[in-house]
Design brief:
- This protein is of the alpha+beta class.
- The protein has one domain.
- Helices cover 41% and strands 12% of the residues.
- The chain has a two-stranded antiparallel ribbon with strand order 1-2.
């Protein structure tokens, strides 16, 4: 199956795919977001990921997706 995704589509995919703990130290994951632990565990994207290239966005998405 092939899809024609633009940068906006890739950003949506990334924002909808939080990483697993195992990849928190991956260079793009570490640079683009942070984990808040404690009473309300959660991941947030704190970097303007629209500044990333399409290749970096795809790498970030596949890293997060494959971490689960």
């Amino acid at each position: 199956m092939n899809f024609d995704l633009d940068k906006k589509d890739l950003i949506s995919l990334v924002k909808g795919t939080p990483p697993h703990y195992d990849v928190f130290e991956h260079k793009l994951v570490k640079r683009c977001g942070n984990y808040t632990g404690g009473m309300s565990d959660g991941w947030s994207w704190n970097y303007n990921i629209s500044d990333l290239t399409e290749v970096e966005l795809f790498d970030l998405y596949t890293t997060c997706k494959n971490s689960w």
